[in-house]
Amino acid sequence: MRTRDDWQRLARAIEPRHQVFIDGSFADAADGASFDTVNPANGLVLASVARGGAVDVDRAVAAARRAFASGAWSRSAPAHRKAVLLRLADLIRSNADELALLDTLDGGKLIGDTSTVDVPGSAAILQWYAEAVDKQYGEVAPTAPGDLAIITREPLGVVGAVVPWNYPLEMAIWKLAPALAAGNSVVLKPAEESPLSALRLAELAVEAGLPDGVLNVVPGLGEEAGQALGRHPDVDAIAFTGSTAVGKLFLRYAGESNMKQVWIEAGGKSANLVFADAADLDHVADKAVFGIFGCSGQVCSANSRLLVEESIADDLLERIRVRAADLRVGDPLDPASTMGPIITAKQLERVLGYIEAGRAESGLAFGGRRLHEASGGYYVEPTAFRDVPTTAVIEREEVFGPLLAVSTFREESEAVARANASEYGLAASVFTDSLSRARRVASALRAGTVSVNTVDALDVTVPFGGVGQSGFGRDLSLHALDKFTALKTTWFAGPAAG
To answer: Given CA atoms 192, 16, 159, 426 in this order, what sign does their dihedral have?
Structure first.
């Protein structure tokens, strides 16, 4: 098992790719501009990255369109696309340490997570879609005798993928795997906070045999590269994961340009409902801690609202406090750390601002401090507030940090009503030992995924996405292919009646 020193030594040997990747090669931004990506563990500049803008997006989209029109990928046999994507999955695995380090250095994610969960998971998702692509069948419609109508799926064309910083490689794969498997060309805009693994992935894709122009990566700022991609008249679809506010911008961009399809997975304020008939409170506490403090709370589906039946609230909150106190907040390159930093100085100030709002509106249960300030990193201790009113800011708004809002209820209907009193509807959890209650409550909750007696249940085989202002469309599962394909009907008329 590698130590902190081992990972630091490997990190020093990495030379991150820092240019835009268009039509199979790296290049500087057209205007020569760049921006700094910062290591959130120490606040130091990690790399100066090409700041792609509208001209670079134009070049990337043109390359993607040429590649699509050539048919080298879009009209290739499914078995060929499968073979290339399987090679890419293998290359992700053989370069796992480098990719894990890039996401840890760039995004502050724990090396224990990136090396054992994120990178292997990305390869597995890519492999799953590769294996699925030659198992998709068309349809034959029940037409009148003599006529034949077939329904086939065709790739859309050029897809713009815009992904967040909390799972840099894995979120890119969530979009790329089904889009590429279906035969599309893609322009990927990674988050400006964590662009490095996406650039390395593009290089590996060419090595795997993906034709030039099929995958292009344009790092840059959202208001520049992101907006240019959203407004581009030759982009057929945008697949976006990020904040609700930015998701709304992409809807506007589409309406003001070419009415391109826009698929949005946005914010969340997931409720975790715990009933008194959940006998194993240690299990509940373990899951509650993971659900909000995992990835430093920087997860769209984080269980940031804990609704507990009044009779067990004090007991459960104390168990959560003890477990939170045992979390080791520190250097993400240290395998002993169990919680890392917040992504940026700006996000740190945002989280601290929510903590101050919580102090004014609720009772602090534990935490609330910035940690390791001398390191230059952006660390916050696990924090929880109790007796949070429905009107509180920390009850209503997505914090995207390690902050838990705890409230109590007496009746099942009260719990469901409060859980649903949110503009978001991405995920929810229910803890109960009653099967009938679990089914009843899960059915009543307005969320894309309801996890019963666990939190954030997730697998490539099941769809992930939300309702309300958490967005629409689904990532993962075979349903994700729906976003990147169009149904085509071809009707063969029978002979004319004699």
So the answer is: negative
Neighbours of 353 (CB within 10 A): 12
* Spatial separation of the C-alpha atoms in residues 176 and 170, rounded to whole Å: 10
Q: Which of 193, 265, 309, 381 is catalytic?
A: 265
Is 265 known to be catalytic?
yes
Active site residue 139: no
Structural domains of the chain sorted by starting position, each given as residue range(s) with its CATH number in brackets: 4-266+471-487 (3.40.605.10), 271-459 (3.40.309.10)
Residue type, 158: V
Exactly one of 193, 203, 224, 300 is catalytic; which is it?
300
CA neighbours within 13 Å on the CB side: how many for 431? 28
Token digits of residue 497:
């009646």
CA distance 339 to 297: 9
pTM over 0.70: yes
Q: What pLDDT is attached to residue 172?
A: 98
Residue 255 predicted with pLDDT over 90: yes
**Strands annotated E in 282-362:** 305-309
Name the percent of the chain in helix, strand, coil, to the closest 5. 45, 20, 35
pLDDT tens-digit map of 343-374: 999 999 999 999 999 999 999 999 999 999 99
Sheet holding 20-22, edge to edge: 25-27, 20-22, 215-217, 185-189, 158-162, 237-241, 261-265, 471-472
